[in-house]
Amino acid sequence: MEEEELSEEEHLRQEEEEEEEEEALSEQEEEEQVREALVPCPLTEEMLKEGLSLLCKTSNGLAHAYVKFEAKYKDLTDISLLECFIHLRYVDLSENKLQDLSPLSSLTHLLWLKVDGNLLTSARMQELPYLQIISFAHNHIKDMEGITHPCLANLSLKGDTDHLSLLFLIWHVFCLSHQVMVRETLFQQTWSLNLNT
């Protein structure tokens, strides 16, 4: 009798595992289809003019430059035009269709970056010396490599991150010795790590 109950339990566990695997595969296939179906939508000069604001002195104090850029809900897939705006300090590119943040590597004065609701699977970026706050909420982040910004104080991964990302995050917290907040909807609580140097 006990053997029958055990085999039933094992059978149910196997079925649950198979269902979870099928769901994960279908989610991956769906993500790939979305990526393949993307219509290219690069950042234009017109969008750039609309999104630039906050005129401030440059770091050397000899000139003025726009330091804030916002382009939300534009379906952007390419932000290469931002590479030239090296004095930007605040960038909000939320709710677009971005898959790559490499054009932001030249923004060495960047302090604050918000890229919520995009199609990002990696947090990989070149090290930015002054970047303090990053929000990757509601993306598909699976790879935390590249989060090596020396002044990073707040990192948000609210939304659909997985356990592997959380482990990478904890590793980077120990490496960076900073305060990092992760809001995991899966656990329905806020994880906060604060490491004093």
From TrEMBL:
Region annotation Disordered: where it falls in the sequence: 1-36
SUPFAM superfamilies, alphabetically? L domain-like (SSF52058)
Gene3D superfamilies cross-referenced by the UniProt entry: Ribonuclease Inhibitor (3.80.10.10)
- Which protein are we looking at? Leucine rich repeat containing 23
List where this protein forms a coiled coil. Answer: none
InterPro entries the UniProt entry points to: Leu-rich_rpt, LRR_dom_sf, SDS22/Internalin_LRR
Xref: PANTHER family: LEUCINE RICH REPEAT CONTAINING 23, LEUCINE-RICH REPEAT AND IQ DOMAIN-CONTAINING PROTEIN 1-RELATED
Q: Which UniProt keywords apply?
A: Leucine-rich repeat, Repeat
Compositional bias of type Acidic residues: which residue ranges? 15-33
